[in-house]
Amino acid sequence: MQGLTAHFGGITWAFVLDLFTDYGLFLVSALGLYVLMSAGQVSLGHAGMVGIASYSAAVLAVKFHVPFWLSLPLTGCIGMVAGMVYCYLLGWRLSGFYLAIGTFAFGEMMINIWLTSDYLGGAIGFSGIPLLARWPVLLIVLPPIFYALWRIEHSRIGLAFRAIRDNETVAGSMGINVARTKLMAWMIGGFITGLGGCLHAHRVTVITPTEFGIYTSVTMLLAILMGGLRTFWGTVLGAAVIYFGPWLTTTSEPRDRLMFYAALIVILMILRPQGLLASRAAR
Amino acid sequence: MAEYLFEQFLIGISTGAIYAIVAIGYNLVFGVMNVLNLSHGAVMMVGSFGVLLLFYLGIDNFWLAVAFGIALALVTGLLVERIAVRPLKGNWWNIKVATLGAAMFLENFVTRLTDGRPMPYPRPFKPVYYTIVGDFEVSNVQLFLIACSLGLMVAMMLFLRHTTPGKAIRVVAQNPDLAQCVGVNVQQTMVLGFALSAALAGCAGILNAVTFGSTYPFVGQFLGLKGLVILIVAGIGNVRGCLIVALVLGVLESFSVVAGGSQYRDLVAYSALVLTLLVRPHGLFGEEGRTGREI
């Protein structure tokens, strides 16, 4: 009991609020990836896409002084265009693991471009972004995203996404326009990711290229695989496991956290191979 | 200038050879088990730290330490196979996630043990510089590293081609069911493939650490990703293609350092990968039919 008090005693209300805000921001980007994954578009470079949006938001805010509520939808549209580019270059040509590696390489390429660009601050990062994405913003942004995803899931498009994920050839022969549906998935996913990137930039206020690397991408991917691909609520739950799991396994030594957490991933994969919120047949 | 270029060329060849060993390790596991083992980089790191562990215990013999490091990598690889691969019964997505979890566990475990600082690495012998022609110089450590990695590659190819266990690995890679029919012990061969891949990972980790003169717990992430890039560019399941692509990439990287500075090194590598995938979606030497959906 004493250990528990020592463990949770130092936690203040502001800290919990901060933690939940960070979780919400992470969730927005992860939901963008969920839309891609629900259409079978596995991306290992999703953080690269978040980075594109974050840098656009940063440039809009600092260089062009665009107000936050205008830059948010604008960044969403930039994310959508980025999604289209991803789709033209990679989504239509590659599938499965090749797509994962292609998106990963694209993300790394973007990171190296940001690293070498003086306009975007190079390796030191882009600073001076106003801190605007506090928790009330999330209460405004998240419900419409949930509603949109819920509607998509129960519509023709959602079924088309699922059909493409299960088998592209069969989906095509059933009259689904595979190329157009993929493009749609990339655009919707890109828009949500764009929102996530904008919020991220306005949350951390200094963005550096390396934070959009493979590690962040893998964390997002894990959140989705944890939750399973049956419904987007799986991602909400999976992101919570990924985000709060390390905090709950904290011991006196912070580095132990990641160790326990990695062991948890292996155990979960053995015990619940289909994800936390999915039926056995869904994968 | 010419001698600088020559030096960079040698560095490129030796890093390329290490990349090749990494990529072939992936290829072996992918070949026999049809899964991607994302803990490969972490096993490399374990191998390189095994050498340091023996030095820490007070045994001051480089070659003994190397043998111990490779053995430690092999045992780690087998443990990963037992815990994070076999219970998942061939479900490729979950194996990817579980081996990634295993890699994270190993990396953070070693970070915990070593405080995460880069550790200085022992050298096999004192560097001596030989002059070839004029100003062209080459050190014996460099020659040794290149000879080691290329020798390892040739040995691997000969093993796969001319010995019974090597042939068994190739048969299982082609068709496990038929292999079982002609009397190959499939389970054993899979474990053998995994063990070989882990031992190769240990060698690559040690060679890399000797090249850079230091090692750190997350060294495997960088090397492992480069190995994956080569695997994809060469086309999955092609050992000779891996060697060629790895050497070309190594030289390309070190020349891009000459041309633009070290910040262009990764940019060149990853742009080359994106371009290759755009032109040839199955990799340079890959088979038409393979779309990568099965990995």
Explain what the structure shows.
The complex is a heterodimer of chains A (283) and B (295). By secondary structure, chain A is mostly helical. Chain A has one domain (2-282): ABC transporter involved in vitamin B12 uptake, BtuC (Orthogonal Bundle), CATH 1.10.3470. Helix content of chain A is 73%, strand content 0%. Chain A has 12 helices and no strands. Chain A has helices spanning 2-8, 13-38, 46-62, 68-91, 96-116, 135-153, 156-166, 168-173, 178-204, 214-227, 232-248, 254-271. Chain A starts with a helix and ends in a 12-residue tail after the last helix. The relative contact order of chain A is 0.18. Chain B is mainly α and 295 residues long. Chain B is 73% helix and 3% strand. Chain B has helices spanning 2-33, 40-56, 62-85, 92-114, 140-162, 164-174, 176-181, 186-212, 219-234, 239-260, 265-279; strands at 119-120, 129-131, 137-139, 214-215. In chain B, the strands form 2 sheets. In chain B, strands 1-4 form a two-stranded antiparallel ribbon. Chain B has a two-stranded antiparallel ribbon with strand order 2-3. The radius of gyration of chain B is 19 Å and the shape is globular. The termini of chain B are far apart. Residues 289-295 of chain B have low confidence and may be disordered. Chains A and B meet through α5, α10 and α12 of A and α4, α9 and α11 of B.
Mean pLDDT of chain A: 84
Structural class of chain A: mainly alpha
The poorly predicted ranges of chain A are: none
Query: How large a portion of the residues of chain B is in β-strands, by DSSP E?
Result: under 5%
Query: At the first level of CATH, what is the class of chain A?
Result: Mainly Alpha
Percent in helix of chain A: over 70%
- SSE order of chain A: HHHHHHHHHHHH
Query: Pair with the most extensive interface?
Result: A-B, 40 and 44 residues
Distance between the termini of chain B: 45 Å
Strand order, largest beta sheet of chain B: 1-4
* Helix content, binned percent of chain B: over 70%
Fill in the CATH topology of chain A: ABC transporter involved in vitamin B12 uptake, BtuC
Envelope shape of chain B: globular
Rg of chain B: 19 Å
Subunit arrangement of the protein = heterodimer
How many domains make up the coordinates of chain A? 1
Largest sheet of chain A: none
